[in-house]
Amino acid sequence: MWGMTCIGIRTVPALPVTENIGTTMSNQLGVSFEGRAQALLERRGWRLVARNYQCRGGEIDLIMRDQTGVLVFIEVRARARSDFGDAAQSITLAKRRRLTLAARHYLLRRPAARCRFDVVTFDGRPPVVHWLPDAFRTDDL
Length: 141
Hints:
Trna Endonuclease, Chain: A, domain 1; single chain; Restrct_endonuc-II-like; tRNA_endonuc-like_dom_sf; UPF0102_YraN-like; six-stranded mixed beta sheet; nucleic acid binding; UPF0102 protein SAMEA4530655_04926
């Protein structure tokens, strides 16, 4: 429909010697926070469907089913400092559009009766977790 090809679940290749250490550490932190968000939701009875789902134009950190069967697309964000706002404020309109694009792509092949977008944030040091169910709607875009 949109001329996109899905990459699916991302596999992380071995890092080349010339990899930027800052980017690598940032990616590792992102994976760590995604794992913490996943564990939080699994303790609530949710089931992981996909992690790091990618298609051209967007990526979804976690796709899970809640205990009622609703498919939930989850964006995970972390910020150690609030100089430029908290982690939730870093999810711009452009980012919400990319999440929506990736979700629509996912749903083309796997229709779901009900779905929504949640956000899990980690703010400060030590990080405080916030779960924002139904954080935004596609009709807001």
